[in-house]
Design goal:
single chain; 203 residues
Length: 203
């Protein structure tokens, strides 16, 4: 079966479902094979394949967040970063600050929680910046559903970055947050270039 006649035109197959339609087609102007929702080629594209084999998934859940307060702030032991309930500045997820938020991950500034709406494997990273006049014990932790998944540890630290990363298998509606668990209060610098992180669905 050959679809198309070698002329410069878009061609597609449409799967006409009861509740949803899907298409597979050639976007000739971009020289890409695309898969998407609906019947109109190029709209609500879920996957794109180019001629070199690179696959793009423009709707894959992802969020990049950054600090929003260009000042120092004390984070008490066990407090959650980005939680206004704990007295911290809310994270920014605005593209105006080079952050982003793609459908599938939500952020609640009151609790500092990020909720994933679909099950899968997620790559998680968070970094904070210590700006202390005296040495402190710094542990920066990732929690999923209030259970610690790992932490970064820096002993007798005064200035510099503390970070933590993990690859987490999540169920739909699991939540992730980041906490200070070093046993003492930590003075951090909360601006966008010093405090940031991301959560991205990789499979």
């Amino acid at each position: 079966l050959t679809i198309g006649d070698a002329t410069a035109e878009d061609t597609k197959l449409v799967f006409d479902g009861n509740a949803q339609d899907y298409y597979i087609g050639l976007d000739d102007s971009a020289d890409q094979l695309t898969i998407g929702l609906g019947s109109a080629l190029g709209t609500t594209t879920h996957m794109k394949f180019d001629s070199t084999g690179i696959i793009t998934m423009p709707l894959q859940p992802s969020i990049m967040f950054q600090g929003s307060n260009p000042n120092t702030k004390t984070v008490n032991n066990t407090e959650r970063y980005g939680s206004t309930d704990d007295g911290q500045a809310a994270f920014s997820t605005s593209s105006a600050t080079n952050s982003h938020s793609i459908a599938g991950i939500t952020y609640a500034s009151d609790t500092g929680r990020f909720t994933v709406t679909t099950a899968g494997i997620y790559l998680v990273y968070f970094q904070t910046y210590v700006n202390s006049s005296s040495a402190v014990n710094v542990r920066t932790a990732i929690y999923r559903n209030d259970v610690r998944q790992g932490f970064g540890h820096v002993q007798s630290f005064t200035y510099g970055s503390s970070n933590v990363s993990a690859c987490l298998k999540c169920a739909a509606n699991d939540f992730i947050d980041f906490r200070s668990i070093g046993g003492s209060d930590v003075l951090i610098y909360e601006d966008a270039n010093h405090v940031y992180g991301f959560i991205t669905k990789v499979s």
